[in-house]
Amino acid sequence: MNRRDPLEALNDHYDDRSALGAVKFEAQDIVKKRTERSRQRASTAAGVLAGVAAAAFLLTWSARPLPVNAAGAAMIERAQMINAGLVRRDSGDWRIR
Amino acid sequence: MQAEDAKSEFEAFFYEQREAVLRITFAITGDAESAADAAQDAFVKVLDRWKRVRDMEDPDSFLKRVAVRSAVDLLRARSRFAVEREGIEADGSEAIAVRCALSRLRPDQRALLALSIGEGWSYAEIAQALKIPMGTVASRVHAAKHAFRREWGEEQ
Questions:
Q1: Cross-chain Cβ contact A13/B43 below 8 Å
Q2: Terminal alpha carbon distance of chain A
Q3: What is the mean pLDDT of chain A?
């Protein structure tokens, strides 16, 4: 097998640019690619905006007050009064302070 | 009128630098298709900032730095070297052995070898392109050569 200095072989490898002969692209290809990327970026930004709007809607919707019946409403009212320090619980009963 | 001027200035710059940029990206990526992709990516990035780039003291160096980074990013993004190796392993020629050994190095090691050995850049130029200190470049080039020798040994 070959026992040449590896770095010498590497140097020869870099010197061989024959494969590049087939590569052709022009200035207008760059302009086209740039336009395409701008379009993609705009489309991504629109997608992100739509996602944010959808998330905001869902958050607002899930935070809406739930419908409650009369008993539930009374419990909520009591809880609010306790939180406000207006009533205290005494022996299982609710008393005004 | 100004837009037309900018367009023709960019075109002149493009045709002046195309071959040099392709050579750099080819040395790093090792194949013509990836080299063309990385070179085009670099030119698109420069075109995006053309007004600023054309007023730079050395726009050529800026373009080359962008090209190096595009090529390294592309190598990182494409983890297809195992496939490449499978396809070329059967042939025992030296050129193939070099490609196989290179394919097993990290993208930054390939870039360091390509720039220091292939392109003959100084450590200062490499440091500027890769945004790392010059001392780090020296030690990493040394390590990359060592890694290449090790991989080459396995190919023989």
A1: no
A2: 99
A3: 83
